[in-house]
Amino acid sequence: MGKSFSKLRVDHEPGERTPRFCERPLGRVLAVWIALQTAFAAPLASAATAASAPSATDATGVGSVPAPSPAVVLNPATVAQPALAMPVPAFSGNQGKPLTVRVPTTADPGTLVPGGRRQTLTFADLGALDPLQLRGTDGQNGVPFSVRGDEVVTAAVLHLIYSYSPSLLPNISQLKVLINGEIAATLPVPRDQAGTLVARDVAIDPRFITEFNHLNVQLIGHYTQQCEDPSNSTLWATVSNASSLDLSYAFLASKPDLAALPAPFFDRRDVRRLELPFVFAQKPTSQTLEAAGSVASWFGSLAGYRGAVFPAQIDNAPLSGNAVIFATSDSHPAGVEIPPVSGPTIAVVDRPAPARGRFLLVLGRNDTELKTAARALGMGQNALSGASATITQLTDLQPRRPYDAPNWLATDRPVRFGELADARELTATGYDADAVRVNLRVPPDLFMWQTKGVPIDLGYRYTVRPAPDRSSLNISVNNGFVQSLRIPAVSASTFDLGQYFSRVMPDKTVAARREIYVPPLLLTPRAQLRLHFHYDIPKTGECTGRVLDNVVGAIDPNSTIDLSGFPHYMALPDLAAFANGGFPFTRLADLSQTAVILPNDAGSADYSLFLLEMGRMGASTGYPATNVAVASADQVDQFADKDLLILGSPGRQPLLQRWSKSMPFSGDGDARTFELTDVAYKVVDWWHGPHGVERSPARADLSLVSSSGDALITGFESPLKKGRSAVALISAAGQSDADLSAALLDNDLLPEIQGAMAVIHGRSVTVTSNGEAYYVGHLSPMHYMRWALSSHPLLLVLSGLLAALIIAALFYRALRAIAARRLRD
After folding, report:
1. Position with higher pLDDT, 332 vs 192
2. Are strands 358-364 and 323-328 parallel, antiparallel or unpaired?
3. Residue 687's CB: how many other CB atoms inside 10 A?
4. What value does the mean pLDDT take over residues 213-225?
C-alpha cells in the first residue's frame, strides 16, 4: 500500500466501507485469465508482437511488462487544458493502429468495443484532488481503482505525466510504477528532462489487476553519492492528476441470480455515475410510479456519492445494456417476454441476443402487487435467490420515526464513531498519513442558537514523541478548522515511573480523551469530520540514515458525537436544506409524509426527473422511499397533510398559476412572474446566523414572456395547510430540463442552491428571492421566549417594563394586605 502525501477525495457514504485493495488472491485472477486465453489469443498475440518491437508511437505492448516508452516533454500550458490528447499503444480492438485518446475532465462512461468496452480514467476521477507529491529518498503515492465483478481487464496502459527535481542523480535515481505491489515499469530520470513536464506510456500486465487495486508511483531519489539527508527538500517529484489509466474490459458470463443483486445493475466497484433505464409498458399509473420511486430510491441509496439517473422509457426498452422493467401479467413493454405471474414477483433474465445485458423484472398481476414487489426488492433483497421469486407476504412491523434515517446521525442518543466508520478507517500510520475521516449526515433543522456547538467525546491514541516538537492532532469539519490538540513528548527525567507504565504501552503509545465542540457554522447536512495526526519529522541531518516511519495515530471507536440536546426548529423556505439533504421530505426516511405532484399530462421527462429525485432522497437517507405518494395536479387537494414536491413546466403544471400568490414564481405558458429581493446582491449563509435565516422583503415583481426559460427551483409554504412545505422543480423539455438534472447531481453546484428561488442556466446558479419565512419544528416555551426576545430589542424593553409593573403591583398588593392586617391588630 502506498503512503498518502496529497489530498484524496473520500467519497464513500456512511455505511459504505472503503474497499481493501488486493483482497482477492492473485491466483483467482490468473485462473480467469487462463480461461480467457482462447477468446483473446489473437489480439494478445498482436499486442505482444507490438511490445517486442517498440517504436515512438507504439512504445509498449499489452500482456507483458516491456521497457517504458520514450519520454515526451510537455508544455505545462497544454496539461492545464480541460482535455489532453496523447498517443496510446495498440489495443486488441484497433487492429494494431495507434489511437489518440481524449483524457476527459470527468469520469468517462466508457466506449463499447467488440466483446467488451474501453474506458479512460484520470487520476482526478480516481480521487486525486491535487497532483501527487513524492518526497524524500523513498517517497510513494498513488490512487485506488476497482473493476466491476462482471468484467475482467484485458489491457491496461498508464499515461503518466510527471516532473522531478533537477538535483536527482540519474545513475542512482528512478521512478517505479507499481500495481498492487508488482513493478510495472522503472522510469529513468535523465538530467535533460528534469524540472519539465514529461509524459510516458506504461503498459500494465492485466494479470496483476484484481477487483480492488492500488496504482503507486515511488520515487527512489538521491542527490549525492556521499552522506545525504533523507528529508532534503531537493528530493521531490510530482505526478499530475491529469495522468490517466486506459483500460479495456471483457465481459464475464454468469447465470442470472437474485442473490447477486444489486449486481449487475449496480456494482459498488464501479466509480461511474449509475445510469439505469426504467421501462414501463404504457403510461404508468400513480401506484406504478410509486413502485418505480421505491426502486429508484433503493438504487440511489446504493450509488451514494456517484449519483444516479433513471431515464424513463414507455413501451420501448433500450437497445442494449441493463434495465428495470415494470409490467403486469396482461401489460408489458414490446419485445420483453415475462414469465407467468402468480403474485408480486421479482426476476432477473438475460436479454435476447444480440443485445447484451439483463432485465430486472418487477411484476404483479395488478398495480398493488407491483408496488409490493418493489417494496420487497428495496427492503428484502438480501433474502432473495434464484432467477425468480414470488412474494407471498410483506408486512411492516414498525413505522418509521422522524429523523431515524439510517444515514443520518441519531438525534436521541450519543452516536459511537464505530457506527460511522470501520475500525481500520480510524487508524493512520506514518508521518505523511492522510486524515481519519468520518462522514456526518446531520439533520439541517437542529436549533443550535447560542450554544458552544455539538459535543464530541473524543478518545484517541498517539505515539509519544522522543522530544517536544510541533506534533498535533488537528481537527476540522469539511474545510473549517475546529481545534488542535498537542501531541506531547514523555521525558524520562520528569515522569513518575508508576504513572508512566500505567498510561504508556510497550509500543510507546498513549491513550487520551478530550471533549471538543464543533461550531454550528460547520455542521451542514453533508459534513465530514477530519482528524489529522501531524507528526513532526525529526531532523536527523546527514549520515544518519532514513527516518523510521514508526508513528501511529488511532481514534477510539467508542468516541461519541451527541446531537440529543438540540431541538428541531428551522426557518423555511431553505433550498439549501433541500438540495443537500432532501429536507423536509427526508424527515421520514420512507417519505410517508411526501406527495409528488406531476402535471396532468406527464411524460417521460417528468417521470425521469421524479425518479432522479427519488434516487437523491435514497442517497440522503440510505433507505428506499417505500411510502411516497404520487398524484396529478387535479388530485393535489387530497394531500393537504403532506409536504409537496411539484414537477412540471409553466403551461403544463396548473399549480404554478393557481398558487401564484403563495410562491415567488408563477407561470402560465410563456408568461412568467418573478418575485425579486435583495438577496442576489448579498453573500448569505442560509443555514446559520444569529437568529436563523435573515429575510429581506420583496423589492419587485418582474413579468415577462419567454419561449425558452431557464430551470428554476422554488420553495414556499403549502397553500393547503400551515406548516407544510412545497418545493417546485420547474423546467421544460430540452436544455432547461438537462440543466436542472445536471445541477441536482453536481456536488459543486449544490452549495449554490439557496434561498427560496434559484435560477439555473447551464452551470450557473443565481438566487433571486429569499421568500416569506415560516417555521417548522418545536421549541420549548423558555427557548422560544429567549430566541424571540433576542431578535426584537424593543420588545425586550417593553417586556421588561411590563414585568416590572406586574412585580410592582404584586408587591403593592402584598404590602397593602400586611398594612391592613397590622391596623386590624
Report:
1. 192
2. parallel
3. 23
4. 92
- Nearby residues of 603 by Cβ (< 8 Å), 6 or more positions away: 733
509 strand-pairing partners = 463
Confidence band of 512 (pLDDT split at 50, 70, 90): very high
Alpha carbon separation from 824 to 150, 524, 529 (Å, rounded): 101, 69, 73
Amino acid identity of residue 367, one-letter, is: D
The torsion angle over the Cα atoms of residues 648, 654, 659 and 661, rounded to 10 degrees, is 100
| Cβ neighbours for 451, distance < 8 A, ≥ 6 positions apart | 520, 566
Strands 197-204, 72-74: parallel, antiparallel or unpaired by DSSP? antiparallel
**Which residue has cell 481537527?**
475
The span from the first CA to the last CA of the chain, in angstroms, equals 96
Reduced to 3 states (helix: H, G, I; strand: E, B; else coil), residue 67 is coil
Whether the link from the prior residue into 109 is cis, omega within 30° of 0, is no
**H or E stretch including 787?**
helix 781-790
Q: How far apart are CA 614 and CA 300, in angstroms?
A: 7
Burial of 444 (0-12, 13-18, 19+ CB in 10 A): buried
Q: Phi/psi class of residue 286: alpha, beta or left (left: φ > 0; alpha: ψ in -120 to 50)?
A: alpha
**Beta-carbon count within 10 A of 581 CB:** 27
For residues 409 and 415, the answer to whether their CB atoms sit within 8 Å is: yes
Phi, psi of 425, deg, nearest 5: -75, -10
The DSSP annotation for 570-618 comes to EEE--HHHHHHH-TTGGGSTT-TTEEEEE-TT--HHHHHHHHHHHHHHH
Tell me the three-class secondary structure of 447-502, residue by residue: CCCCCCCEEEEEEEEEECECCCCCCEEEEEECCEEEEEEECCECCCCCCCHHHHHH
- Asked whether the beta carbons of 716 and 771 are under 8 A apart, the reply is yes
Measured in whole angstroms, the distance separating CA 790 from the mean position of its chain's CA atoms is 38
Sorted by sequence, the CB contacts under 8 Å of residue 374 that are 6+ apart come out as 290, 291, 292, 294, 295, 362, 626
Question: Which pairs with CB-CB distance under 8 Å and at least 24 residues apart come from 186-195?
Answer: 186/68, 187/68, 187/160, 189/164, 189/237, 190/71, 191/166, 193/71, 193/73, 194/163, 194/164, 194/165, 194/166, 194/168, 195/163, 195/164, 195/165, 195/166
Q: State how far the Cα of 174 lies from the Cα of 163, in Å rounded to an integer.
A: 12
Distance in angstroms (rounded) separating the CA atoms of residues 301 and 294: 11
Q: 250, 246, 58, 88: which is closest to 154 by C-alpha? A: 250
Determine the residue type at 256.
P
In one-letter notation, the amino acid at residue 744 is L
> Helix H segments across 622-713?
655-658
> In DSSP terms, which residues pair with 438 in a beta bridge?
529
Least confident range of 31-45, 137-151, 636-650, 718-732: 31-45
Q: Is 689 left (phi over 0), alpha (psi -120 to 50) or beta?
A: left
Phi, psi (degrees; rounded to nearest 5) at 477? -120, 120
Tell me which amino acid residue 761 is: H
Look up residue 603 and give its amino acid.
Answer: G
Rounded Cα distance, 444 and 686, in Å: 11
At 623, is the pLDDT very low, low, confident or very high (cuts 50, 70, 90)? very high
